[in-house]
Amino acid sequence: MAAHVGASRTPQEVMEHYVSMYIHGNLGKACIPDTIPNRVTDHTCPSGGPLSPSLTTPLPPLDISVAEQQQLGYMPLRDDYEIEYDQDAETLISGLSVNYDDDDVEIELKRAHVDMYVRKLKERQRRKNIARDYNLVPAFLGKDKKDKEKAPKRKITKEEKELRLKLRPLYQFMSCKEFEDFFENMHKERILRAKIRELQRYRRNGITKMEESAEYEAARHKREKRKENKNIASSKRGKEDGKEGEFAAIENLPGFELLSDREKVLCSSLNLSPARYVTVKTIIIKDHLQKRQGIPSKSRLPSYLDKVLKKRILNFLTESGWISRDAS
């Protein structure tokens, strides 16, 4: 601008004139806002963004014993492991060399190899940062159990454990503190929702003051206690009358009162009416007695008695001592 104006103005004078008239003058005050909205976040800043150069910055070495270092294959002075993530990443650049006669395509290809290698290094360091942030190395060595015993936390429910497993892929996007705060806030949310439901229940029952809720809860506890005692008494009566209730399908049929408890169970399991069972039982015992007396007899069992029913009834009569085993 000074060259365009001429020799009458120096570059410093031209700059001062522009700043005073156009930036700090009336025109600048009218056009330039005090705060610039919608600033774009710089993801390459060294504050730990996804493209931050700090991702490749080595961390301080782990505080572990020599035996544990050997177990992990860890080299503390380099903060490296004998087996790293993507162990063959160095092969991308190990054979590269810069030659003066390289054309543009070869140069760009070598730059692409270097860029791929740098990305692999960043991924390698990112995984180390995650392992360091979530204390995965002490967990692998079993040191975190002592820390958990020293600092007791709230009991984690089964549902929360399952949710933590489902959200485990999010570990790489959140720090350990952010992840724990996330679940702690979800726990607080569940508590608040339960409290809100309780207050809504009070309101539905006509309670508008917290002083009245204590009296309501005491009365509700008494009602539940009476109901529980009533259920216990009814269950005791049910045990006494359980056998009759168990045989509801056959208790109104003729011949039911002639059966013993075991015979009732048998008829109920075989879906056999008491009258038919008594008929089959009479025929089998009569034939058995005739055989013992040496009287020949032909067994004429009813047609509704198949092989399975006959075998079950014979076994039952044998176990009960009505007939001998050789007869069955």
Automatic annotation (TrEMBL):
It comes from Columba livia. SUPFAM superfamilies: Homeodomain-like. Residues 1-26 form the SANT domain. One of its GO terms (molecular function) is transcription coactivator activity. One of its GO terms (biological process) is chromatin remodeling. GO terms for cellular component: nucleus; SAGA-type complex. This is Transcriptional adaptor 2B. It holds the Pfam family TADA2A-like_3rd. InterPro entries: Ada2b_C (IPR056267), Homeodomain-like_sf (IPR009057), SANT_dom (IPR017884), TADA2A_B-like_dom (IPR055141), WH-like_DNA-bd_sf (IPR036388). Residues 213-243 are annotated as: Disordered.
